[in-house]
Amino acid sequence: MSTKLIECVPNFSEGRDPSIIKQITDAVEAVEGVKLLDVDPGKATNRTVVTFVGTPERVIEAAFQAIKMASQVIDMSKHSGEHPRMGATDVCPLIPIANVTMEEASEYARQLAKRVGEELDIPIYLYESSASKPEWKNLATIRAGEYEALPDKLTKPEWKPDFGPAKFNPKAGATAIGARDFLVAYNVNLNTTSVRRSNSVAFDIRENGRIKREGGKLTGKPLTDDQGVPLREPGACKAVKAIGWFIEEYGIAQISMNLTNINTTPMHIAFEETRKSANKRGLRVTGSELVGMVPLKVMLDAGKYFLKAQQRSTGIAEEEIIRLAIKSLGLDELSPFDPRKKIIEYSLQDAGFAPLIGMDLKAFANETASESPAPGGGSISAYVGVLGISLGTMVANLSAHKRSWNDRWEEFSIWAEKGQSLKDELLRLVDEDTRSFNGIMEAFRLPKGTEEEKKARKSAIQAATKYAIDVPFQVMEKSLATFEVIKAMAEIGNPNSVTDAGVGALCARTAVRGAFLNVKINTGDLDDKDFVASILQKGEAMTQTADRLEQEIMDIVNSKI
To answer: Looking at the predicted structure, is the pLDDT value of residue 177 above 90?
Structure first.
């Protein structure tokens, strides 16, 4: 999946009144293209953590509407609770989930902060990766003194907010907005009931490690630096916080971890380091538990890690990689692990973000055969391309497992991974082609009463049409790229599967030529004639290349049959 996704986890200063919380979450759910994943209120803290996911533009809109609603229904002058807070919306982090860099997420955070500050008159401080000052990266620094300190702080030049007025807003307070890494709450199960022993393992793996003591003994005097600060022996995993505890419900001890940067220490590495430490202490890891949801990449990275350890091809279907990750990490030991509910991208897919590729074969065929004009030839061309590269990838995986070619598994694994990547890109375009067609229909439905409306409508139609040309052109590019894998498999792959490579080549050529038909029919309505001439010239050249490559592959296939 290559759709851009970000997660937003705003914390609102209300955890006791369900009607107020519902008004805020209703504001989130009213924004199309966003999925509300979780609502977690706390009575003692008088605080609710809300989690929602979607494309960046939609998430920003939902976050703004939620912050706006919170400023209307929460009165900070009457708020009390155990958790530190400074605003009705206390903090609003944006977290890159898929195909979004931290720099891009930070820019989205700045856009949101600017709009909230200007339109809602709320002082906004940027924090974490979006911070405008090094000291403001830390939320605790910004929130020092909490709501009660704001009237005085906002009069000082050094506390001038990044956006919004430098004046006290008694009802809404102030808000921190920024981009940060995804945090994974993850527990590893041990075959012990001892909290002391599980804590020893936690100290081995967490970044903060343990305090150094004289003689290296637990009973030794703590060692300190010149300032009297205890010296620490760092643990094995950076960006990991961990403690050991006993869970009465399960009758076992666990290592409870927060993985604060999954790029620094992925989940499977934290698991492996826990296993190594437990083994040294006579303990055994029996499984693990994921708290909340996780990005798809985390599970794929874990599955590929264990596949490589077995010297097996990593270019297999996504679902198979995830199944191996679940079993290798023991994620189903304590309760069933449903990838459709635990993986963010899958949850979004099931919510309608990718309706076509979520269908089974029969449903997809029925939808295509219905009276609706979409999905049409563009989506079908993309799917034919999917089938072609799937066959090429199959040959690569069969070659990686050929008994007499054990020393070549990695060579074919690389080809299979390349095939899987192209397959996933083409799968995305199956739905994207239909979305681009719907975009044109939406543009035509825009009002056209005034001259300004007519101008805006025409501009929207032209932009939507250009995108409806670009999508099938992407199908052409990706389908043409599949010939590299397919031809290689016809030449060097398992000879018993050479005809599969041949069928793959036939599909790839059909995908290129079919997509070009969609490109050509959409160019007729575009005013930008230079763009049209350029795209048609490139398309003609690509179809000729596809014809040539298909023939070359068929010659190879026929020579080996």
So the answer is: yes
Residues 209, 156 within the same domain? no
Q: Cβ neighbours of residue 422 under 8 Å, at least 6 residues apart?
A: 389, 478, 481, 482, 485
d(C-alpha 506, C-alpha 281), whole Å: 58
Could you say which of 162, 301, 433, 500 is catalytic?
A: 433
Residue 221 backbone phi and psi in degrees, to 5: -70, 135
Residue 45's pLDDT band (cuts 50, 70, 90) = confident
For residue 85, give the CATH number of its domain: 3.30.990.10
The dihedral sign for the CA sequence 208, 212, 216, 222: negative
Helix (H, G, I), strand (E, B) or coil at 79: coil
Structure tokens at 100: 């979004």
User: Is 211 in the same domain as 151?
Assistant: no
Q: Determine the pLDDT at residue 1.
A: 38
**435 and 493, same domain (yes or no):** yes
3-state secondary structure of 72: helix
How far the first Cα of the chain sits from its last, in Å, is 37
- The answer to whether residue 433 is catalytic is yes
Spatial distance between the Cα atoms of 397 and 422, rounded to a whole number of angstroms: 15
Distant-in-sequence, close-in-space partners of 517: CB < 8 Å, separation ≥ 6: 377, 381
Residue type, 139: L
pTM: 0.63
Same-domain check for residues 498 and 364: yes
Asked if residue 18 is part of any domain, the answer here is yes
Residues 6+ apart with CB under 8 A from 329: 267, 268, 271, 287, 288, 302
The predicted pLDDT at position 437 comes to: 83
Report the amino acid identity of residue 170: P
| Residue 291 and residue 217 in contact, taking contact as beta carbons nearer than 8 Å | no
| Cβ contacts of 5 within 8 Å, gap of 6 or more | 53, 54, 55, 56, 96, 97, 98, 99, 100, 344, 345, 348
188 plus 167 within the same structural domain: no
pLDDT tier for residue 484 given thresholds of 50, 70 and 90: very high
Please give the pLDDT value at position 216: 67
Q: Which of 75, 83, 424, 528 does the annotation list as catalytic?
A: 83
What span, in angstroms and rounded, lies between the C-alpha atoms of 55 and 35? 10
- Chain mean pLDDT for the chain: 91
pLDDT at residue 218 greater than cutoff 90: no
Three-state DSSP class for residue 47: strand
Verify that 269 and 411 share a domain, yes or no.
no
Q: Return d(Cα 343, Cα 337) in angstroms, integer.
A: 10
Question: What domain range includes position 240?
Answer: 184-298+330-336
Give the Cα separation of 279 and 291 in Å (integer).
24
Position 460 in a domain:
yes
The domain boundary residue, chosen from 154, 179, 204: 179
Q: How many domains does the chain have?
A: 3
Whether residue 315 lies inside any domain: the answer is no
Higher pLDDT, 541 or 365: 541
Q: Which one, of 513, 511, 515, 505, lies nearest residue 550 by Cα?
A: 505
